[in-house]
Amino acid sequence: MTEPNDTGGAPRRRTQTLGVILGLLDGAKKQANAAVTALHRQSSDRARFDGLTREYRPDAVADGAQLETLPGEHKLVELTAERQVRDLAGALHRRLDLQLTMDTADTTAFGDVRVPDGSGGERVLIAHVPATTLLVMTKILEDVRTFIRNLPVQDPAKEWHADPNADGVYVTDVTETVRNKKTPKVLLKAAATERHQADTEVYWIDERAGVWQRVERTGALPPNRYGALLERVELLLNAVRTAREEANQVVAPDRRMGYDLFSYLLDGRLSS
Q1: What is the distance, to the nearest Å, from the Cα of residue 35 to the centroid of all Cα atoms in its chain?
Q2: Is the domain of 229 the same as that of 145?
Q3: Which of 20, 120, 185, 190 is the Cys-Cys partner for 199 at CB 3.0 to 4.6 Å?
């Protein structure tokens, strides 16, 4: 097994930025996965590993009789297990080299998370953050942004005040609504006489009975607080992305392990 290089001589060491290596590794992963899947599919067809040569040789006959001939069979071996395992090694070779190069570079790739300081400049919020941490921070902040976007916001048509007795709760001013109730009254149509009872009629009127006092409460965010949270999470996301770009500019010296790994696997050979 020979280590691939551009000149046919000793392997050439290159340096590229971590950002470039990340892109190359993504492509190498896809190519390796596709190649390994194809090799698995090929190896599952056992008939392709089998071959056959079958020829008929008639016995000699006397008295000049014609020799009998029969058609033979010939089937080539399409696949060899040795070739399959070497192709597998070749498919994984580059992917392993790039992984090692990236992981090594990750140990020296750092970026500073900078945010506005309120006076037109910037301030380092978190210094010397590893590139891998910055990637996790990006994903977490994206989840936080989605969460905030889905929070309820107070109805701007109403005037809200913070409730001093409950943290995060807002209330409206007290509004009053009069409550009426039906009260029966008697209308005297004709007074009673010696011969007739009084002629009366019962009717109902609305009379004030009390007052409903209404206070609305909400745990929703005030619009200005909602907007400030979204603005700051966007600032943090941009700051982390910028820090990642900074970290990805670190030089990543080319490292290789595929050759040594598969040389030992295939041939039991230890590199000097």
Answers
A1: 25
A2: yes
A3: 190
Does residue 197 form part of some domain? yes
Q: Are residues 124 and 202 in the same domain?
A: no
Question: CA nearest 12: which of 259, 247, 269?
Answer: 259
What's the domain count of the chain? 3
Assigned token pair, 267: 């041939």
Q: Would you say residue 165 lies in a domain?
A: no
Residue 82 and residue 21 share a domain: yes
pLDDT digits (tens, 9 = 90+) for 85-133: 999 998 999 999 999 998 888 888 999 999 999 898 999 999 999 988 9
Q: Return the structure tokens found at 187.
A: 């209308």
pTM beyond 0.70, yes or no: no
Residue 250 token pair: 């670190």
Parallel, antiparallel, or unpaired: how do β-strands 175-190 and 110-116 relate?
unpaired
